[in-house]
Design a protein that fits this description.
The complex is a heterodimer of chains A (about 80) and B (about 525).
Chain A: H1 3-17, H2 38-52, H3 56-59, H4 69-82
Helix pairs in contact in A: 1-4
Chain B: H1 14-31, E1 36-43, E2 51-57, H2 59-64, H3 68-86, H4 90-93, H5 115-130, E3 136-140, H6 148-151, E4 157-162, H7 165-175, H8 179-182, E5 185-189, E6 203-209, H9 218-231, E7 232-244, H10 249-260, H11 267-279, H12 288-297, E8 301-308, H13 316-320, E9 321-328, E10 340-342, H14 343-346, H15 350-360, E11 364-370, H16 376-387, H17 394-400, H18 409-419, E12 421-426, E13 436-442, H19 474-491, E14 499-502, H20 516-522
The chains are: A mainly alpha (about 80), B alpha/beta (about 525).
Amino acid sequence: MDQKSAIRQFLQRLLAQKGDRRPFGDSDSLLLSGRLQSVDAVEVVLFLEEQWGIDFAEIGFDETKIDTVDAIDALVQNAAVRN
Amino acid sequence: MPQSETNMNAGASPKKQAQIAIAQDTATVLRQHPAVSDAAACSLSPDRNCVVAFVVPGDSYIDNVLGRKEAATSQIRKWRKTYDLTQLTKAAAASPFGFNICGWNSSYTRQPLPQEDMSEWVQTTVERVSALAPTEVLEVGCGTGLLLLRLAPACKRYVGVDFAPSVLKRVREQLAQHEELLGKVDLLERSAENFEGFAENSFSTVIVNSVAQHFPSRAYLDRVIENAVRVVRPGGHVFIGDQRNLLLLEAYAASVEAFQATPDVNVTELRNRIDTRIQQEQQLVLSPSYFLSLQRRLPKISRVEIYPRRGHRDNEMTRFRFDAVLWTGPQSGPSFEIPFLDAPAQGWNLANIRSQLATWKPDRIGFARIPNSRLAQDIHFLAQLASTSPQQVFSELHANLTEDEGIHPEEVFRLATETGYRATISWASCHAEGSYDVAFIRQGSPHDCAFPQIRWPQSNRAGSVFYSNAPGQSEIREKLMLELLTYCHAKLQDAGASSIHLVDSVPRTEGGSVDFEALLSSTQMSGRCY
C-alpha cells in the first residue's frame, strides 16, 4: 500500500471508531473542522511516529500540518527528505 | 415508595415472599464473587422473576483480571502525548512569562479559552490555595507552572511533578528567570501515582489541580489520594481542584450540544447527541460524594469540604466544576450547627436574604438549596428537552429560553461583604441541578474564620450512588455484568437477577437498611420494590 493510501485508511478507521462513516476528500479538513478532536490528533501523531519515525519534538507541532490527507502526506515526505 | 430489606417481609403474600427470598439470595451469591465488593438486590414485581441487582465492583478484579490496568497505561500515554504536543507549538514558545495556557481549549468552541477566563481561573485558584497557608507543597500535575510560579515564592519548598517532558521544559525555562525560586523548587518528571521518595508527613499541602479528569480510572485516583494523604502532615491539606461535577454531566453535555446545534436540529437528534457525548466522555468526571466518602476509608482525613469554583466569568469551569479540600489530623474545634432555611420552599432570594442579615444581624444563618443562576439556562434547556415533542426543532426551544434565574454565587459573596458577613458556599449536600448551600457567619463572631467547620444539611443519598463515570471502560463493564449474570444464574438455578447495575456505593438509610429508593432513582428506574 502506498503512503497516501495508508494515511487515508488510518483516518477512515479513526473516524469510524467515532461512528463517522461520511466520505472525505484528500484536501478535506478533519481536525480544524471538528470531525476529529484533539485527542484524535494524538492518535494521528502516534501513528506518524510509529509508522514513519517522525519526531514532533524536533519539528514542532502544528495542527494544520495534520489536518488533511494531503497535509499529512506532505509532512511525511518532508520528514523523509530531512532524514 | 420502595421498601427496605428489613421491613419488606411484613405482611407479604407468599408470591411476594418468594420474590423477596430470591432477591436476598441473589445479593448473598453476588457478594461471594471475587469481582464484587458490595451488592444489594430487590424485586420489582411480586408476580414474576424481576430481580434487579446493584453491584459495587472490586477494583482489583477489574484492573487485573479484566485488563483495565493495560488500558490505563495506554490512556496515560495518550494524555502525556496530548500535553507534550501543546508545548511543541509556536504559541507555547511565545507565551508570556507565567501565563502559558496552551492546551486550555473550550469544549464549546474548541478554540483556546479567552485569556480573561484563564486569568480569573488562575487567580481564584491561587487565592483559594493561599488561604490554606501552604509552606511545603507537592503539586501533582504542575503543568506549565500557572500555580507553581505564583505560590512558590511564599513557600519554603515546592515540588512540582508532571508526566510530560515538554511541559516541564517550559517550567524550567521560566524558573531560570526567577533565581530566588531555583533553590526551593524541584521539578520531577513522573506519573501522578508515583510518590516514591516522598516521606510520610513531609508536606503541608498537596495540590492536584485540574488533573484528576485525565486519570484513567477512579481506582488510579484512589491511589493518588491515598499517597497524597500519607505525605501530608496532620494539620495539612490535600487540595483537589477544578473537578468536573458528575451530578452536572448531563447539564454540561446539553449545554455544549445546544451551543453547537444548528436551528433545524430536532429534539430527538439533540437528545441522541447529548447521550452520545455522555457515553463517549473521555475524562474522569467525579461526584462530590466521592470525596465525602474518602473520610470513611482514610481515617487521617478529618474533614472534607466541597466548594463550587469562584469567578464572575461565565465558562465551563465556573459552571460545572468544584474544588475539594481534604483536611488531615485533628481540627481546631468541632463542627457547628447552623439553622438552614430552605431557599426554594420558603422563597428566599437575594433581596430578602439581605434584609434578613441587615435587620436581624444573626451570628450565623444558612440557606439551603439555592438555585444556581450560573446553571439556570442549562437546567431549563434540559427540562424543555424532556417535555417537548420529539419533532420540535432547536430554534423553537431556543426562543423559549428564559433569562437567568436563581442567585449567582458571586452575588452571595458580594452581599456578605456588604452586610459584614463571611459567606461559605458548599456543594457537599449533592443537591440536584447545581443548587448550593450557603452559610453566613457575622464577621468577628465566635465562629468567624476563613474555613468555618459547618455541619451542612443532610446529603442527598441518591447523589451518593455514583462516585464517577467510567471513561473508556464500557466493554470491560459489559463483560463484568455478563459474567455476574451467568454466575448468578448458575448458582441459583436460573432464578437469579434479571438485570445487574454497576454502582459505586450501596447507600443505607439511617436505620442501616439498603436505600433502594436512592438506588432506583439514581439508576433512573421507577417502580416499587417488593
